[in-house]
Amino acid sequence: MEAGDRSVRASEPPHYRIYGDYAGAEPAFYPPDDFPWVDTLRRNWSVIRREFEDYAYRQGHTLKPNFAPDPVPLSGWRGIPFFTCLRRYDENCRRFPETVAVLESIPNLASAFINLLEPHSRLPPHHGDTNTVYRVHLGLIVPGGVDQCGMQVDGERVGWREGDVFVFNDARRHFVWNDSERDRVVLVCDVAKPQYGGATPRACAKVLGSIAITFLQTRLRPLRRLPPAALRGLHEAASLPFRVYLTLHARRRRRS
User: What does the alpha-carbon distance between residue 210 and residue 187 come to, in Å, rounded to a whole number?
Assistant: First the structure.
């Protein structure tokens, strides 16, 4: 079992949001010093922040709204994706070469993006997509303490610090606020847990399949009432195209 995994019950099955609210035993937060790659993020935080400030503030690029599969009220939540479940955004990666070099040094990295929350904006309480990844936040621009700018995972409140990292269980219920007068900016990473298959096309496709079903359930109400066996079958079917795509995507990148 690798560093950090001792906090996880290996016997706990993978959870996806389509199967209901997470009720497992994994903690809300994991000790960041259990993970060797946390030091890599800490050492390079100012490089990542500089590339972001050049892109967003000096060059004036507009960040796009982040995608949410369910219709929750969101405003002021924007981002720059680099990887989504192994799918690489080549143009963004070219614009952030030093950031991407740091990200590609992290074993089992599945997803990564820079996340901006505008002043006086909030993300409502929600559950993340799965417990099969460690969700990682690196503070880049933090405009205030936890009362002004922070996050609560279950009953635990935390505030970001510039250049520091926390690692949490995205499957648990959480919400975020920025009541300050400035942007809050963090680098977000999903590091796939080895006991659930790591960052492979198969494991990442399961996450994407569950997101696709969440999207469909908000628009096709009968899908919300499927019995568990039918829902599992639909999840497998929805994951298969993503698995094929990610496998081909990885092969093309190896040849290029």
Answer: 24
